[in-house]
Amino acid sequence: MKLKPGRLTAIIKGAIASIGAMALYAISLGCFTALMLLVISMEEGGENLPSSAIRLTQSIILLSQGTGFVIGSVDLTITPLLLTLLLILLIAQCVRKAGGDLISWAVGLVIWVAINLMCAGGVPELIGGSPLAIIGKTASVWTVGFLIGALPGSGVIAAVRVAVRERVNRRFYDSVLLALLLTGTMIAVALVAGLVVVIVWIARDWQGMATLFDMDGMENGSRILTTVASCAWLPNLMIWAVSWLLGAGFHIGELGSFTLWVGQAAGLPPLPVFGLMPEGVADDRVRLGLQCIVPAIYAVIALLAMLLPGPLKVRPAAFGDKDGVKSLIVTMLCHLGAFVGSTVVTLALYAGGFALSNGGLGTQRLAHVGVDVLPSLQVTARALGFGLFAAWLAVTVVLAAIYGIHWIVEYRAGRRPSSPADGTKVKSETKDSGKTRVMSLRSKEPDSRPKPRSAAGSTGRGKDSDLPAGPAGPDKPSSDAPDGERRPRTVRGVEGKGGRVPRSVRVVRSAGEPVKPEQPSKEENNDNNQPSD
């Protein structure tokens, strides 16, 4: 059966990617291993260590994919995560250069597993090195690297993205993207925090590591190369440091326990890296501050995700805009859903990291080295809850306060009684065609024009003399009362030929005097008696 040119090309690409990635990784690792063994044998003497470089390289290749081995008196099962990460990135780069599809993945997987089984055949001292376990672990590493190299920019991802945008609600799509972005950001923040903690450990306890080098009798060259080799387990230390920073801590089997409260060890093997293990923090305030670092950073990240410009930015809507208020409520619920989803995914990644960073240095008291997964997940969930949901609640409270203040202002404005601008109300009744009207007289400021004075003087007693009843009409009181006296409160008027004139008596109230009526003048009586039109 003749193969099509496209399938043959895919098979060749998969084989090239698999063989090329393993060749580059094995050659680089083998050269460094041979150099390290050569320097150690030259400085320390003893047997010809470089002769065992090939076997040690094969063992490290399998160890970087999760299969432990026995080296001397140490049963090493702690996976060097830095080598694992470099191997996955190398596979991804080779796949990206060669290109690949499903056929390329299958061919490369077969070749990759076969090469690793060949390496396992040359190292009989494997721990958990059954063929099925080796096949499963190596296949997982190849698959992850292949997906990282082949999926970005592929047509499958573009088609899935277009289909999702067409069939999924826009807000839901934005919420999922926000959750993924938050997850990546928080994992990166945790790793950076762990790296900073490890650097602080090194700066504070490098003398302990130097003491262990002296106990092992290692010279400068051996110290340098051994330190460089120990960097392969740097991500493991970073993950342990994150657990330590959050309050859970880690332990070295049954011989050492390290938390923020205590740091003690007894009977540990003389490995130089154990000289970097931290002590407990004596000051309660410093310990509390260290525990609050990661939640505070997570809270800032959540606030930025909610307030920065974007499709899900939070902005208060106008008080009377019902559609805007509904949109704001939906946006806040989308943020809440994104935070919940991000928390779940982040906890899953934390659990995977904690499990992968653990291992053993023996079979008895050093059988378990690393963190306890469940306590570490509990403190991580607490940090995520305090950070993300405290930020969401803070924004919710601020928005509720804004709308509450608006509601109170509107409520008070609605309950305020309607009154004239100067707070006074004057009623007058007029008779027009047998009907009575009530008029409200309003004025912001008292009238500053001169007012007519009665012939009786400032007391307001006696009859009006030659002065008219008041040219200003009923809209303005005609009494000029001195200080301490009250102005007329009501004026009754009637429409006639000569205009609106007072009909009944005017009442003037003065302090300390009884109320006396002021009699209308003779001219006013004549005007009142005239028939109206």
From TrEMBL:
<feature type="compositionally biased region" description="Basic and acidic residues">
    <location>
        <begin position="515"/>
        <end position="525"/>
    </location>
</feature>
<feature type="transmembrane region" description="Helical">
    <location>
        <begin position="258"/>
        <end position="276"/>
    </location>
</feature>
<feature type="compositionally biased region" description="Low complexity">
    <location>
        <begin position="501"/>
        <end position="510"/>
    </location>
</feature>
<feature type="compositionally biased region" description="Basic and acidic residues">
    <location>
        <begin position="483"/>
        <end position="498"/>
    </location>
</feature>
<dbReference type="InterPro" id="IPR045931">
    <property type="entry name" value="DUF6350"/>
</dbReference>
<feature type="transmembrane region" description="Helical">
    <location>
        <begin position="383"/>
        <end position="409"/>
    </location>
</feature>
<feature type="transmembrane region" description="Helical">
    <location>
        <begin position="328"/>
        <end position="351"/>
    </location>
</feature>
<feature type="compositionally biased region" description="Basic and acidic residues">
    <location>
        <begin position="424"/>
        <end position="435"/>
    </location>
</feature>
<dbReference type="Pfam" id="PF19877">
    <property type="entry name" value="DUF6350"/>
</dbReference>
<feature type="transmembrane region" description="Helical">
    <location>
        <begin position="143"/>
        <end position="164"/>
    </location>
</feature>
<feature type="region of interest" description="Disordered">
    <location>
        <begin position="416"/>
        <end position="533"/>
    </location>
</feature>
<feature type="transmembrane region" description="Helical">
    <location>
        <begin position="223"/>
        <end position="246"/>
    </location>
</feature>
<keyword id="KW-1133">Transmembrane helix</keyword>
<feature type="transmembrane region" description="Helical">
    <location>
        <begin position="12"/>
        <end position="40"/>
    </location>
</feature>
<keyword id="KW-0812">Transmembrane</keyword>
<feature type="transmembrane region" description="Helical">
    <location>
        <begin position="102"/>
        <end position="123"/>
    </location>
</feature>
<feature type="transmembrane region" description="Helical">
    <location>
        <begin position="288"/>
        <end position="308"/>
    </location>
</feature>
<protein>
    <recommendedName>
        <fullName>Lipoprotein</fullName>
    </recommendedName>
</protein>
<feature type="transmembrane region" description="Helical">
    <location>
        <begin position="60"/>
        <end position="90"/>
    </location>
</feature>
<keyword id="KW-0472">Membrane</keyword>
<feature type="transmembrane region" description="Helical">
    <location>
        <begin position="176"/>
        <end position="203"/>
    </location>
</feature>
